[in-house]
Amino acid sequence: MATLQVSNLTKNFGSTLVLRQINLQVSDGEFIVLLGPSGCGKSTLLNIIAGLESVDEGEILIDDYMVNRVEPKDRNIAMVFQSYALYPAMTVRENIIFGLKQRKISKEQTEKSLNHFSKMLQVDQLLERKPAQLSGGQRQRVAMGRALVREPHIFLFDEPLSNLDAKLRVEMRREIKKLHERLGTTMIYVTHDQVEALSLATRVAVMNEGIIQQIGTPQEIYDKPNSVFVADFVGSPAINLVPGTMAKTGGTLSFSPDQQSEDFHIPLSTYDFEKEPEEGKGIIFGFRPEQISLPGSASKSQIELELKPTLIELTGYEQNVTFDFHGNEVVGRLPRNAEAKLGKSMSLALELSGSSIFDQESTRRL
Amino acid sequence: MPPVDLQIESLERSASRKRTFYRWLLFLVLGLFALYYLAPLYVMIVTSLKSMEEIRQGNLMTLPGEFLLDAWKIAWSGRGYTAGDVFLRPFFWNSTKMVIPAVVISTFLGALNGYVLTKWRFRGDNLIFLLFLFGCFIPYQAILLPMARTLGILGISNSITGLVVVHSIYGLSFTTLFFRNYYVSIPDEMIKAARIDGAGFFKIFFKVLLPVSAPIIVVTVIWQFTNIWNDFLFGSSFSFGEAAPIQVALNNMVLTSTSVKQYNVDMAAAFIAGFPTLVVYILAGKYFIRGLTAGSVKG
Asked: Is the pTM of this model over 0.90?
């Protein structure tokens, strides 16, 4: 059982405000990912939860106890770092049991835990080696072993996969996910990689400039981003954002992009507005690359388009095609057998469900 | 035009000739410099092995006709020089008793300072580091009087203990600088991990940080050992008579003899006084270079 509650947390470094009014509730067994660009305060938040940084204002509660002034070692947490942070002078065995030794755990118990977790992480053959003799992936496993062996209530991960190469990263990501499903321990994970965030988290907290912009399940974050920042940060290739104005044609709301050459409207009658904007208001229309497809299965929520490709990138299974869309660049994700040719108009379908509309001024979702 | 493969062959040949030529030129220049630097040492050693007779008539560079160790014996512990004789043996031990504690203390405190200044940052730590840095630029002469007064108040003037204190304090700026710059390159995450693992301030220092500090410890020890062993000014200012370190004794031996100069004894004595630093360099020189260039500790 481990819950975490962060309330009204504020942190300054000198005169720079790093975190402002952070509120976060984590219930037992959750996998929370703090996602954001570098410098958004996500690592600072993690360090504060760990007790490595002090709190300026607000409270941190672990299992309903206020831990603002509790030492890191007494918070029942373990942390895995980006640089692994293994002790270079110690063997793998000594690295893993260092924490247990400090806690004066009995020899038998130590040996039992060491065996159990080193087998689980497949480092049992490496126990007598020094960290310098291990590969990046093995070091990461040892670092995780060092965290696991203490059987903490909360795991903290600070960009643990960023130093690994692309292939190994995917592999370790899967292992972390399996580990969470197996142990069911509360985990808090910091990353700037949105793929990691979406694939690992039970809930994602997207951060920017010291504020949690949006918190929700990966689905919610992807489908209903609450601001232009979140929409743009999550998803690859990035969401297409087209500025324009609200218009009303024949009683129904529609979107007409800026710099349009002919009279072009996208009907918004099916869009579920949180708050319906006035006519003539500046808005941003956002749609994901997979909403563009080849015409065919005509459905009610689709409209037809004629667009000219300006760039074609093959990704293997698919191709990402950049089109000129009324003076804006938009990307569509098309099957690789779609015959896209540079400069040659092709007819396409745009699926409207799944679109997002933002206010140009506040950049919030409408 | 000859065929292409012949052309390439001749190009390759001339390139390799050029390479060989420059290689040998390099060796030649390096060899000449090595000889130039070793010449004084050679003169010292051969002179110390000659009799006075031979020195008077002979040439500086010739090998001794007969290898005599008499001069070494006199310099170390001999008899029959002139009145007010100085022999190096007791002063050699004085220096040893001074240099070992002073090196250990200043290195240890420097490591501790570096650890605090990089891993336990506090308000004003940069100012403190700046002051340490400033300490490196204070000339020896500037602290002579205040230090003499301080040693007097502490009641340890004219003693080995006093010299240990002087050298430890004076060396602290340098050792702190060395360790601070080395520890900056050691990732903070290692310290954070140890804190979460439950290790305290000293445990982290001894178990996590010191074991990876070997290169910088070697650099610091060599630096401190050389400086303290070779120091003359502090030794001659704060000690005299029996409490003097070897450099002061050497000076007394060479400069204050009233009769004829015994060059062979002087040379042997100078060699004895310089010998320990030579040994330290030969044994640890490899690590010295490595430690000076060692940047980050990976893994």
From this structure: no
